[in-house]
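Our preliminary data section would be incomplete without showing what the modeling component actually yields. Below, a chain of 482 amino acids is followed by its predicted structure, encoded as tokens that our downstream tools consume directly.
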Amino acid sequence: MTQDIHPLLLCGGSGTRLWPLSRKSYPKQFTKLMGEESLFQASARRLSGAGFAAPSVITGSDYRFVVTEQLAAIETGAAATLIEPEGRNTAPAILAGALELKARAPSALMLVAPSDHVIPDAAAFREAVQAAIPAAEAAQLVTFGIRPDRAETGYGWLALSQRPDAEFKPVAQPLKSFVEKPNAATAQDMLEGGMHLWNAGIFLFSTDAILAAFETHQPEMLTLVKDAVDDAEQDLGFLRLAPEPWADCADISIDYAVMEKADNLTVVPYAGAWSDLGGWDAVWRESGPDHQGVVTSGPATAIDCEDSLLRAEDGQQAVVGIGLSDVIAVAMPDAVLVAHKDRAQDVKLAVASLKSQGAAQAETLPRDYRPWGWYESLIVGGRFQVKRIHVHPGAALSLQSHHHRSEHWIVVEGTAKVTVDDEIRLISENQSVYIPLGTLHRMENPGKVPMVLIEVQTGTYLGEDDIIRYEDVYARGQGAKG
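Predicted structure:
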């Protein structure tokens, strides 16, 4: 009987090339770019069902509760959620996942996958994974190669040792070599030659095989990451890797660290659609442009446009394009991107420029996500701020007080359980409560539906770090937001 495959979802990237929708505070894997589920949720669902164990996830501390919430929304849960102290690229992340998995499932097969890719035909991809199992069980390091449909210069490529059959069946074969991101001419030659595939960055191997590869090619990293896992701390349902050894790890991809040096490499061709959504041009392409090459999303209208993408991310915005050609226009409540489609990869330059100016829009969305729900600022003045706060059913903010501001809460949906010093009461829709400066307070949602309130803050300082926290079910420290 074939053993279960244990997915490891890599979930730490910030996705700056899809700004302004994807930002450091809420990167692209958690957004609904291509449907009603986030890319992360679609990835978890794709690698589930018969033959798959519950996934492991490795992510950053800021995203740990988003991971839990989004998995719960698709009625699944992680076997383990590892928290990186800082991003160190894919090699240390995969190694940590392999060490954690080996401790609870020796010699298991691990399928490593980024959590922000689009693979529409989940069944066909699972068929390719099944085809890779015999090679992985034979101690091969298996990668998956995508059949190319254009001379793409933004991907690495894989050189095959033999030409795929006419039907492009997922048949494992020895991998000849990795190819760096090519120039346009080289990419065209590889496309026409039929002996190269795109490198998807998806791998299948046993924990024994990948740990042996690290021992051979990256022994220092193996020691450091092992120390980070051995000294990790449990924090609620998360495993926080030890920061000291982790900081000494090289910032390097799994390809450079191990794969390009190994001699036990196998590739499985995959003929189905795939995209890493590495830019707005990819989103345009994968969204199915109409007969004039136009894609619209939200309340967006295109008049006499061609080969363009128009997105309005707020239901109360109206984006209208007239006579546009090869243009990307993405409107958020606090930022708008307009770019030529050929310059999609340069969006990261805009993020860097905004960051150098100290603009909050560079990294932070108007909606700030918290383990209990989210809030967004509606109006900000010199000495006041108005927020909308959404609290999930059963969730609670920390018991806290503020040095510099008072607050007035008005419930507009659901019921709030409110603590003000020693008094606890229920506040229903259209009722309000005043929180004087310095008062101990907490809001909770005791109901089965979301609770929404409007918060009016007044004071000399309205920063999110003006919090003295006394109790917190999410184990956050003093000064942490929310």
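The first helix runs from residue 39 to 46. The domain at 5-270 is CATH 3.90.550.10 (Spore Coat Polysaccharide Biosynthesis Protein SpsA; Chain A). Preliminary results of this kind motivate Aim 1 of the renewal.
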